[in-house]
């Protein structure tokens, strides 16, 4: 079946509009998606870097205060002169411990330990039954007596809260004779990080070096070291941007290391959420395209019909001429190509 000139013109115009606006929608979607992703990644890098610095700064403050006590005359006096519970040397050192606890409300306890026993503030019964020398934190303090070392996070039995222990060595006459340690609750840290509003359905996480989720919206306290994205994070020694699927959801992960405790802090985004703006624009352009096509079709249909109407009339008259009727006549009303044809 032959296609008329009218429908050829309408078809070509409609095709040009579809290709033009379709290309516009595709190109704009790609540009917006890339720009949004780039903007979010840069913003997240700043966020995780700042959080990493904040965590390190807080821990350094705890560590500095611990070292001041570990090197004080009061603790040396305690080890040289203490003989019974709550004697003068004991009471003097406890005053320093109480000041430390008052300064840092997130510290649940501060204590000193050696082969002979444990002195803990606040005091509780049953200390004599605890062999501190068998505890990992004790060995950690002896191995690194000149710095403050940090244990892996663990759930505190009394509070059910993630806790880390900072420990350093105690020296008397240049001999390491024990350790000083403090248990620090991570409540404020985890609440602060968990409450962050990242947008685009993003959420923050913190892993220790073993893959334990210290902060996670759903899986806090669980070992996630088997997850592919967690494996990549744990293997990364510096800041990184990773694209990985999490539970079959394409995601973008921006991470940073917290060196002094060997943790990884990261922000995770659902990639489809990052592309939501581009998707919305695509929908808008699609609706605009439908509107333009509808209007264009109506305009072209009536406009071209009016233009080609004289051609139909010429065709009819020329049919009469071909049959021998030379008396036919047509009024020429236009001076365009169709008008010239009608004139001839």
Helical percentage: 40-55%
Give the DSSP E fraction (strand runs of 2 or more residues): 15-25%
Please outline the major beta sheet.
6 strands, antiparallel
Number of helical elements:
9
What is the tally of beta strands?
Answer: 11
Mean pLDDT: 86
Estimated radius of gyration: 39 Å
Regions with little confidence, pLDDT below 50 for 5+ residues: none
Shape: rod-shaped
H-E string: HHHEEHEEEEHEEHEEEHHH
The assigned structural class equals: alpha+beta
> What separation lies between the terminal Cα atoms?
30 Å
Textual characterization of the structure:
The two termini are about 30 Å apart. Strand 10 and strand 11 form a beta hairpin. The protein has helices at about 5-70, 75-80, 90-105, 135-145, 185-195, 230-235, 270-275, 275-320, 335-344, and strands spanning about 105-115, 115-120, 150, 155, 160-170, 175-185, 205, 215, 240-245, 250-260, 265-270. The protein is about 50% helix and about 20% strand. The strands form 2 sheets. Strands 1, 2, 3, 4, 5 and 6 form a 6-stranded antiparallel sheet that branches. It is rod-shaped, with a radius of gyration of 39 Å. The model has no long low-confidence stretch (mean pLDDT about 85). The chain has about 350 residues and is of the alpha+beta class.
């Amino acid at each position: 079946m032959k296609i008329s000139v009218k429908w050829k013109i309408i078809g070509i115009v409609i095709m040009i509009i579809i290709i033009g606006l379709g290309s516009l929608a595709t190109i704009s979607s790609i540009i917006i998606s890339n720009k949004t992703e780039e903007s979010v990644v840069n913003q997240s890098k700043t966020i995780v870097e700042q959080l990493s610095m904040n965590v390190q700064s807080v821990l350094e403050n705890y560590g500095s205060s611990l070292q001041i006590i570990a090197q004080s005359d009061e603790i040396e006096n305690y080890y040289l002169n203490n003989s019974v519970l709550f004697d003068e040397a004991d009471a003097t050192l406890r005053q320093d411990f109480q000041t430390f606890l008052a300064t840092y409300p997130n510290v649940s306890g501060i204590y000193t330990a050696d082969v002979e026993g444990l002195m803990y503030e606040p005091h509780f019964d049953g200390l004599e039954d605890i062999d501190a020398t068998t505890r990992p934190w004790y060995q950690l303090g002896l191995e690194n007596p000149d710095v403050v070392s940090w244990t892996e996070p663990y759930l505190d039995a009394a509070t059910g809260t993630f806790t880390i222990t900072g420990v350093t060595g105690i020296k008397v006459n240049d001999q390491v004779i024990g350790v000083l340690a403090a248990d620090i609750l991570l409540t404020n840290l985890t609440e602060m990080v968990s409450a962050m509003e990242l947008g685009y359905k993003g959420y923050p996480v913190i892993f220790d070096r073993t893959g334990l989720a210290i902060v996670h919206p759903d899986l806090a306290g669980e070992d996630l070291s088997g997850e592919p994205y967690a494996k990549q994070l744990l293997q990364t020694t510096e800041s990184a941007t990773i694209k990985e699927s999490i539970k079959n959801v394409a995601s973008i992960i921006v991470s940073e290391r917290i060196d002094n405790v060997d943790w990884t802090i990261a922000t995770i985004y659902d990639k489809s959420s990052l592309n939501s703006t581009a998707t919305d624009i695509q929908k808008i352009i699609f609706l605009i395209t439908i509107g333009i096509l509808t209007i264009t079709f109506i305009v072209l249909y009536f406009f071209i019909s009016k233009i080609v109407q004289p051609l139909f009339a010429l065709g009819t008259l020329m049919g009469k001429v071909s049959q021998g009727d030379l008396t036919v006549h047509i009024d020429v009303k236009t001076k365009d190509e169709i008008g010239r044809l009608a004139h001839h």
